[in-house]
Every structure is written in structure tokens, then in C-alpha cells.
Specification:
The protein is α+β, with helices and mostly antiparallel strands. The protein is built from one helix and 14 strands; from the N terminus they run αββββββββββββββ. It has one helix at about 1-25, and strands at about 50-55, 65-70, 75-80, 85-90, 100-105, 110-115, 115-120, 125, 130-135, 145-150, 155, 160, 165, 170-175. The radius of gyration is 23 Å and the shape is globular.
Length: about 180
């Protein structure tokens, strides 16, 4: 009798599990891709340097960060994760000015703006820590700094450096581990 109960219980479990999977697959949109973990982003500046990271409630986009330190004009800007350069552009005195976008796969991108110069070319692969540009004051800015964004599927998301999310709507000292 005990064996018969186990057999019926296993059959019922298999039926519920199969029905549940079938129901779940019917409810999910067919074009949904599985989640991809974010790359291990590092600060886009030289290892060991400390920078002030400032975020604003009226920043555009909201989750961007402006990085600066004393006498930072011409400092190296580094790729914050492995990826492929997909865009290098210069908007002159408007918006981002001279900027670069790197695609890291899985819908992840980073944007580096207000550069005084760029290195590399569109389509080139860069490793984390590779020099890709120089801090500047191009575009619509009031002073030298690096505007930085992390994007997922085209939208800016809260920034994570070295596995930790930065604090928003304040200024904070951040130290690079991009070694």
C-alpha cells in the first residue's frame, strides 16, 4: 500500500510540475532572453587614483556619474570592462561633446563623455584597463570632468564599481581598482 501511495504521489507531482512548466511557458513572452550578469565593471581611471564621484537628482540621465579630481584635464580614461568600441563621436559644444560607447555583451554598454581625445576605433576590442580616451571639457559642460554611464538594453542603470553600487545624489570619494 505504501508503494502505491508513493507511485501515485510521484505521478501527481510529475503532472503538477509539467503543468506548471507548461503554464509558465505560456505566460512568458516569447522574445524574452535569459538574464545576463553584469560585467565586473571597474572605475574608468588609473588604478589607485581617488576621484570625486558626483550624482545629481536632475542629472541626465539620472544614473550617470561625473568623475573629477584636481588637475584632471588630460588624465587617462580606461575601459571599465572588456568590450568592443561601437561608437566614437564628437557633438562639438553640445551634449556629450566628444564621447565613446563600449558594448560589453548581454545588453551592457558603457558611455564615456566630455573627452579631450579618444584612442581606438569603432569595431576594436578593448580589454578592461585599456586607455580609450582623455578627460576633457568638450560638449555642454561648466568644467573638466568625465561623465560616465553604465547602460543595460539602452537605459542607464545604477553604477557598480568593483562589485559595489555607488551612492546616489551626493558626492563621494571613489578609488579605482582598475589594475
Amino acid at each position: 500500500m505504501f508503494t502505491n501511495i508513493l507511485t501515485r504521489g510521484a505521478a501527481l507531482f510529475a503532472s503538477v510540475t509539467t503543468s506548471g512548466l507548461l503554464l509558465a511557458s505560456m505566460l512568458l513572452p516569447q522574445n524574452v532572453e535569459p538574464a545576463v550578469a553584469a560585467p565586473a565593471f571597474q572605475m574608468p581611471v588609473t588604478c589607485g587614483q581617488s576621484w570625486t564621484g558626483t550624482t545629481f537628482t536632475n542629472h541626465n540621465p539620472l544614473y550617470a556619474v561625473d568623475l573629477n579630481r584636481a588637475n584632471d584635464y588630460g588624465d587617462n580614461v580606461l575601459a571599465s570592462a572588456d568590450g568592443t568600441i561601437t561608437r566614437i563621436a564628437n557633438l562639438g559644444d553640445s551634449s556629450y561633446g566628444r564621447y565613446m560607447i563600449i558594448d560589453h555583451g548581454g545588453g551592457w554598454q558603457t558611455l564615456y563623455a566630455h573627452l579631450s581625445g579618444t584612442y581606438g576605433r569603432e569595431g576594436a576590442f578593448v580589454s578592461r584597463g585599456t586607455r580609450i580616451g582623455l578627460v576633457g571639457d568638450s560638449g555642454n559642460v561648466t568644467g573638466t570632468h568625465l561623465h560616465y554611464e553604465q547602460r543595460l538594453n539602452g537605459s542607464a542603470v545604477q553604477i557598480v564599481f568593483n562589485g559595489a553600487r555607488i551612492v546616489y545624489y551626493t558626492s563621494q570619494t571613489l578609488t579605482s581598482h582598475n589594475c
